[in-house]
Amino acid sequence: MFRSILLPLAEGPAAVIARDHALWLAKKEGSGIHALAVIDIKAFEIPVMGTPDGFMPSVVTPPIQESQTVLEELNAQARERLEAFSKECTAKNVSCSVDIRTGIPAEVVAREAVAHDVVVLSRSGYSQGSGAEARLDPLVPPVIRGSIRPVLVAGLKLRESGDVRNILVAYDGSIHAGRALLVAAELGARPGVTCHLVNIAPTQDLGEETLAPAEAFLYHHGVAPKKQIVIGSKPSELICGLVNKLGAELLIMGAYGHGPIREMLFGSTTERVLSHCGSSVILQS
């Protein structure tokens, strides 16, 4: 299923975890990785103090010569990161291609995602000023919103064996969760993988009704999930609690629920899960 993986390169400790997940997925699927370095056009803007009447803009574009110098420096840094990753792929016998793009990062990544099967992101390391204390990089939510492909946001380090053995699928009956079942079926059908299928519901009966089609879909694709219904009304807290309790290394879920404005705003449950849940998460819009 995952023949081609898009990996926007980040910097920092979290970036290493994202690269490891991309390499794990590539080796399991026999797929290639397309490493992408994105140069943010905002790097060419200089913040200034604007006047009270707004006559002077908050940012200005530096002279052409200065812009060219900045661009050359950023391209050199990007090439260095791409070359290092390409060598790592060669050492691990993984097919790799590289590219550099300039633009608005979220738009660039979402556009490039069309040519691939899955996007692998780091939780941080893309945006300047986000800081090591930031739980979720500002780039991540807009990429999830804009990508038509599933997005893996890397969290926990992979086990020493370099594999994922315990998967939790959070299913709420939404169309996005339904699409995510394709990913769950692909990853959950491997030998030695345990797949948990979970629904957060106000009653047991409603939970059973919601999970029935999802359970049937996974069975049809060779996955026998361990079904669990949790009674409650705070999905993000309960899902994160289950991830910890079950020791799940990977959480698979839809990026949005049933809210009427889900296409306009980033799903609140999803954002809280990404910010507070330690496991890696695959989200499907």
Describe the structure.
This protein has 285 residues and is an alpha/beta fold. It folds into 2 domains: 4-41 and 72-153, Rossmann fold; 164-284, Rossmann fold (3-Layer(aba) Sandwich). It contains 8 helices and 12 strands. The chain has helices at residues 13-29, 64-91, 105-113, 140-146, 175-188, 204-220, 235-246, 268-276, and strands at 4-8, 32-40, 46-47, 59-60, 96-103, 118-122, 151-154, 166-170, 194-201, 226-231, 250-254, 280-284. The strands form 2 sheets. The protein has a 10-stranded mixed β-sheet with strand order 5-2-1-6-7-12-11-8-9-10, sandwiched between helices. Helix 8 links the parallel strand 11 and strand 12 (280-284). It is globular. The two termini are 17 Å apart. The model is unreliable at 260-265 (pLDDT under 50).
Helix tally equals 8
Main sheet characteristics: 10 strands, mixed
Strand order of the largest sheet: 5-2-1-6-7-12-11-8-9-10
- The first-to-last residue Cα distance is 17 Å
CATH class of the largest domain: Alpha Beta
CATH-derived architecture of the largest domain? 3-Layer(aba) Sandwich
CATH-assigned homologous superfamily of the largest domain: HUPs
Q: Rg from C-alpha positions?
A: 20 Å
**What letter string, H or E per element, gives the SSE order?**
EHEEEHEHEHEEHEHEHEHE
Low-confidence stretches: 260-265
Q: What value does the average pLDDT take?
A: 88
Strand-residue proportion? 15-25%
SS elements, strand count: 12
Overall 3D shape: globular
| Residues in helix, % | 25-40%
Helix and strand content put the structural class at: alpha/beta
| Oligomer description | single chain
Total domain modules: 2
Classify the fold: give the CATH topology of the largest domain.
Rossmann fold
